[in-house]
Amino acid sequence: MAGAPRIRLTPLTPADLDAHLAGQDEQLTRWYTGGPSTREATAAYLHHCSTQWERRGPLRAFGIRVDDTLAGTLDLRFAGDEVDIAYGLYPSWRGRGLATRAVLLACRYAASEGARLAVIKVDPANPASAAVARRAGFTFAGGDTTFDRHTLPLTP
After folding, report:
1. Half-sphere exposure of 41 (CA within 13 A, CB side)
2. Using CA atoms, how far apart are residues 118 and 111, in angstroms rounded to an integer?
3. What is the dihedral sign for C-alpha 22, 26, 30, 32?
4. Dihedral angle at the C-alpha atoms of 11, 22, 97, 34, nearest 10 degrees?
5. What's the predicted TM-score (pTM) here?
6. Which residues form the N-acetyltransferase domain (predicted)?
7. Beta-sheet strand order (sheet of 117-122)
8. 117 by DSSP, 3-state: which?
9. Per-domain residue ranges of the chain
10. Roughly what angle, to the nearest 10 degrees, separates helices 127-135 and 98-112?
């Protein structure tokens, strides 16, 4: 992608607290976090994320960074040979293809960690998130009243 900003995925840490809180808006809290968070709850979650990285636990929470700026977050949750992917961008970073690129980077990482199937669960009322899954090559695999399921086979 010529001219596209360089993005990186880095482990999410407690040092990201202020940037993460500053980036939250109604859409992010609705689709990604389930509701507004307190500073204390967010700090506890970021500490948990760091602990999961240290222990190589099933949660791998990433910061989506453009240069050194936190633009959003992406979580991987490993369960056997599957990995669930959830992502959210802060308002000023949306609409630039960053979520799709972050999902593709996360899929490469997940495959290197042994995952064979990536899954994105999308609220049917959130077409923007479903579009990210489609652009990243995921296939609609069915749904229910809560989530549509999109899957992508991974290779090492």
Report:
1. 6
2. 9
3. negative
4. 80
5. 0.90
6. 7-156
7. 7-11, 59-66, 69-79, 82-89, 117-122, 148-153, 139-143
8. strand
9. 7-153
10. 60
Structure tokens, 5: 């900003």
Q: Are strands 139-143 and 148-153 parallel, antiparallel or unpaired?
A: antiparallel
Residue of 109, 154, 116 lying closest to 9 (CA atoms): 109
Q: Are strands 59-66 and 148-153 parallel, antiparallel or unpaired?
A: unpaired
Q: Distance (Å, rounded) from C-alpha 74 to C-alpha 127?
A: 18
CATH annotation of 7-153 = 3.40.630.30
- Distance between CA atoms of 18 and 42, rounded to whole angstroms? 10
CA distance 15 to 37: 17
Q: Which one, of 102, 49, 98, lies nearest residue 74 by Cα?
A: 102
Tens of pLDDT, residue by residue over 47-101, are 999 999 999 999 999 999 999 899 999 999 999 999 999 999 999 898 899 999 9
The C-alpha atoms of residue 59 and residue 74 are separated, in whole angstroms, by 10
H-helix or E-strand spanning residue 27 = helix 26-28
